[in-house]
Amino acid sequence: MSDQTKLDRRRFFGTAAMTLATAQIALDDSVWAQPARKMLDTAGFKAGTNTSFASLKQLDAGLLNVGYAEVGPAGGEPVILLHGWPYDIHSFVDVAPLLASASYRVIVPYVRGYGTTRFLSDSTIRNGQPSALALDAIELMNALKIEKATLAGFDWGARTANIMAALWPERCKALVSVSGYLIGSRQAAAAARGRAAMVVSILFRDRTRPRRLRQVSPRILETDLAPRLAQMEFRRRHFRSQRESLR
User: Which of 11, 112, 139, 214 could connect to 62 by a Cys-Cys bridge, CB 3.0–4.6 Å?
Assistant: First the structure.
């Protein structure tokens, strides 16, 4: 894959991340509340204007030496932008300066396993669990002496931000979560498993699925399976179209 193709792919997700500039949501103690007071001027925004960050910084934080980009005034309200997999900080190469122009201090870290972020010790267990990524971000906030920040991310970064807001609400001023990776409950998922889950498994793994699907009740097909199939088909078409456009 060429460098230009990689850049175009990152910009696609950077465009989705424009939600961060237009839909910042403030949190209070009980509800997802009113829009934040700062409004960003996006009238002149054009995706692809920027190609890189001016420079990267390195900082020891928790188990890691974290590579990150920082733009905006040092005394501005902090915003932490979290990328997903398999993307990187360049997903935010356009939106970060837009936030900085509104006097936000924007921090964009490489998560563990990406870019210039490295483990401090060879003996540290390599762990990619979502909770570990959330703790990494909290440790980065500690190292930067940031008590509270607006947390925003897409893909796996959205789930990291969600976990941070759930486990450390006192560190989260606001949350912007883009895409469908949310916090899950294993107990609730186990309780919800039934024939609908079995049907999905049949559909994608079993060569005898036409015959076996006829054994499933119409109610399950209508209420449980149909919405899942519609969502899967939408995602399949979406990623196929993106793949074709990047060839």
Answer: 139
